[in-house]
Specification:
Layout (H helix, E strand, L loop, with lengths): L3 H9 L3 H18 L6 H18 L5 H19 L1 H5 L2 H22 L1 H5 L3
Helix pairs in contact: 2-3, 2-6, 3-4
Length: 120
């Protein structure tokens, strides 16, 4: 992973909605890249980065969002720990991809950015 302090400094300049948008984007990338074992390094890095994004966003989130983010961080940490095993199994990669996609949508919804850019 790149210089974590530089990433943190940049990430913390944005408000909570944009931070959550960044997390949502990372989760969407995980969903997209995890379908191919050739992308294992990219997914490994995104899993790690997403855990940090949650750590930096959660303190400012409302209580209900904090609870969701903590559960998400735990799952990401678990996936990160066993990523080599998941990467070797196409069915497990597909499950991870589907779950990451669902979470991406939920986090984007939490951010409120989708409503801002795509009003009903």
């Amino acid at each position: 992973m790149k210089n974590i302090e530089e990433i943190k400094t940049r990430y913390l300049k944005d408000g909570l909605p944009v931070r959550l948008g960044g997390l949502s984007a990372d989760l969407a990338r995980i969903a997209s890249f995890s379908t191919s074992p050739e992308n294992w390094k990219v997914v490994d890095s995104l899993l790690e980065e997403s855990k940090f994004f949650i750590e930096w966003a959660a303190p400012e989130a409302p209580l209900e969002q904090k609870a969701f983010l903590v559960e998400l961080q735990i799952q990401l940490a678990y996936w990160h720990r066993i990523w080599v095993e998941i990467c070797a199994d196409s069915k497990e990669r597909e499950k991870l991809s589907q779950q990451a996609s669902l979470w991406s949508k939920k986090v984007l919804e939490m951010s409120g950015l989708a409503k801002e850019y795509f009003p009903p």
